[in-house]
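Many introductory courses stop at the sequence. We go one step further.
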Amino acid sequence: MNEKERGGPSRRALIGWGGAGLALGAAAAGGGVALSDDGPSAAPAGSGGAVDFHGPHQAGIATPVQDRLHFAAFDVKTEDRAEFVQLLKDWTAAARLMTAGKPVGEGAYGGLAEAPPDDTGEALGLSPSRLTLTLGFGPSLFERFGLADRRPAALADLPKFPGDNLDKSRTGGDLCVQACADDPQVAVHAIRNLARVGFGKVAVRWSQLGFGKTSSTTPDAQTPRNLMGFKDGTRNIAGTETARLDKHVWVSASDGDAKSAWMTGGSYLVARRIRMNIETWDRASLQEQEDVFGRDKGEGAPVGKAKEHDAPFLKAMKPDAHVRLAHPDSNGGITILRRGYSFTDGTDGLGRLDAGLFFLAYQRDVREGFIPLQRRLSTHDALNEYIQHVGSAVFAVPPGVRDSHDWWGRALFSKEA
């Protein structure tokens, strides 16, 4: 329900002649931000491209992977629980509009000339571009708002792995929002507007732009390649494999105890910024590159096989080959859903590209998924010579927003629910 439906004042009414400061003050007092859901669509009728925002699970996990990413981690600045809950409601309303290709609030123009527009405007005229927005809660959030007894045990702090060189400015966060779209401007617009709506209550801690998806959740799509030139995510969980999703990705009512029941239908996300030593890799021989991965570079076939999707014979690979070490058969069946993207962020000042993989992985329990898998890879994987983990975060991704009356995180904040 938006502000107009609740009978509350619109954002422009709050601003009046007092300027933005008055609006922010009124919002802090509980007025929130008006987020209309009856504005004109930014996409021409019949153009398609919208992913349904509502459902038992958040979109952006098993959804067919889009081409672009803007990921942002936020620090919470408010100490007021009710104000934070209102922010979650306002963010939900904004996300509902933007994923449908509509502007936030009263739009980017046509309103009071003396007031800032409700929408930043750079996505006007663009289609929804399959935009999905996925929200997660970091471990540090549970140190606030009386949530300590609601933190699931599966939201485990990641240990320091061998070879980690984590930058604190790219690590952690109270909240995250993953924006995926086929148009980078649509993804950036979404994060920018959520940051505007949250001004004074949250602040961006770090963010990452990504391109060139490195995994697919669509079984009939061509497997994408990472910046090392190899196909990535050949055996990734597909969005149509409901049994595998239930087993490895979605939290079940039988998981954990009463304090984590609010996560039923959700998942746990690990985000890792992995820097690739591109220049060193580019000087390695083709044979060495293929030995490191355990697949050929052209077809993507496992060692000794002809086709990419042929079942791998792991013992034919070198003991430290990445595919051999990461395969579920080598890890007691551990399976995660990968949704990573490539990135390039200029140079490091020494003439080397700051480039690599922004690794995103969803799983049912971090303790049984990423942590044991990464412990094995970080100590034995031949790929470690060419990569370094430089950023890290873990988040509890709550279940989906079921209908127009629901909002992100409602089950966690049960008193308000």
